[in-house]
Amino acid sequence: MQPSSATTFGTARRTQLFDELLALFLSEGFAHLTLDDIAARLRCSKSTLYTLADSKDGLVVAATVHFFRGATAAVESQVAAVDGARERITTYLAAVGRALDAASAQFMADLGAFGPAREVYETNTAIAAQRVQELIADGVAAGDFRDVHAAFAGELAATMMVGIQQGRVRAATGLDDAAAYRELAAILTGGINA
């Protein structure tokens, strides 16, 4: 059964609003914005926003989930396009960094200060760390990497990824999240080469 054109339009409009909401949050952050501000900026009514979520907090969480869902799909499509363990890990971490390039410092600060959205970031960081561990294990099994303990190397990556997510790396080094992911890729893959 095909969806009606009204349903298709509703879904398309909803996706468009999420994209616009996300673009607004990524560029300016969200803590300072009220529902009235958001509605005015997106040229919609507050009742339209309530079709996306039941509160501003809900909008923030939904937009954060939308961001990470899109970023994950983009990252994985880039990884699928390359061969070799080193290239896959480098591509993965660099793509994560590029995905975070879209996020302003204000968005990242607001994300860190708002528990429910921070939990989304933390969950996605944990998933990404697990993915790096899988890529390392694949590389060891293929002989592309020396026989490192994949769980240890993955935990090393996870520790750095959490440090990046929590802002400790930025504070200590001045590197933004995207640049830190690129550095992690270079160090990690250089250290485990066969």
Automatic annotation (TrEMBL):
Keywords: DNA-binding, Transcription, Transcription regulation
Domain HTH tetR-type: 11-71
Top-level taxon: Bacteria
Regions crossing the membrane: none
DNA-binding region(s) from the entry: 34-53
Keyword Transcription: yes
Pfam families: TetR_N (PF00440)
InterPro entries found in the cross-reference section: Homeodomain-like_sf (IPR009057), HTH-type_TetR-like_transc_reg (IPR050109), HTH_TetR (IPR001647), Tet_transcr_reg_TetR-rel_C_sf (IPR036271)
PANTHER family hit by this protein: HTH-TYPE TRANSCRIPTIONAL REGULATOR BETI (PTHR30055:SF234), HTH-TYPE TRANSCRIPTIONAL REGULATOR RUTR (PTHR30055)
Protein name per Swiss-Prot or TrEMBL: TetR/AcrR family transcriptional regulator
Species for this entry: [Mycobacterium] wendilense
